[in-house]
Specification:
Helix content: 25-40%
Strand content: 35-45%
Largest sheet: 7 strands, mixed
Shape: globular
Order of helices and strands: EEEEHEHEHHEHEHHEHEE
Number of strands: 11
Length: about 220
């Protein structure tokens, strides 16, 4: 068994914790202290997040999309595969080192996605980007934590509470969609989405093809 190699550690802005980049052969892992947040071998549900959101804005010729959290870039790469040539994708990533890792140790995994002309990168809190302007996006994709709770950053809670969902709804254009990834179901969050004025669909997706953990994707359409 090839041992894990610790490549780098990065502080999380405004938090006490830190992210660790690990490598074992061609496999990468990003961990919150000792808890694994993502692994380069498990990406099926992240790709599904982008594909399902893209399907719901398929009739928009020039969709404007916001992706919250770069991670290992699986959601971004899938979005580029499924969105049209005139799409504009903003990626908000609050930890600068994550983007440095994407262009450095994980460059082969990243490929040309960060340099695609449809992509704009912002080193910013996605919650702040959402609140900047109303009717700005056709789709908002959130994969910034393990679900609608603040595991990585306590401040992420404000994305999923009543005020955060109201802000997301205001940032969406008519018939836009808020797509949220989670490692686990959350009935209370489903209710909050409905109370915030969204039409809610909950989809189960495997982490790796037809195998692996069963994750949850909420597709919340603006009414």
């Amino acid at each position: 068994m090839i041992p894990w190699e610790h490549l780098d550690t990065a502080p999380i802005p405004g938090e006490a914790g830190s992210l660790r980049l690990m490598r074992r052969g061609s496999e990468f892992s990003i961990q919150l202290d000792r808890n694994e947040l993502m692994n380069s071998r498990l990406f099926g549900s992240e790709e599904a997040l982008a594909r399902l959101a893209a399907e719901r804005v398929a009739k928009v010729a020039t969709p404007r999309v916001l992706i919250g959290g770069y991670g290992m870039g699986f959601t971004l790469r899938a979005a580029l595969d499924h969105l049209p040539p005139k799409a504009a994708i903003t990626v908000a990533e609050i930890v600068p080192a994550v983007l440095a890792w994407a262009r450095g140790p994980m460059a082969e995994l990243t490929g040309p996605s960060l340099d695609d002309p449809r992509v704009a990168i912002r080193e910013a809190d996605v919650a702040a980007v959402i609140r900047e302007k109303g009717n700005a996006f056709d789709a908002i994709l959130l994969d910034v934590d393990n679900g609608p709770d603040g595991l990585t950053r306590a401040a992420n809670d404000r994305l999923y509470d009543a005020a955060g969902l109201a802000a997301a709804r205001a940032a969406l254009r008519p018939h836009g969609v808020l797509a949220v990834w989670s490692a686990h179901p959350d009935a209370a969050f489903t209710r909050r989405l409905g109370q915030a004025g969204f039409a809610v669909e909950e989809v189960a997706s495997r982490a790796r093809g037809k195998r692996g953990a069963r994750h949850v994707i909420w597709l919340a359409g603006r009414r």
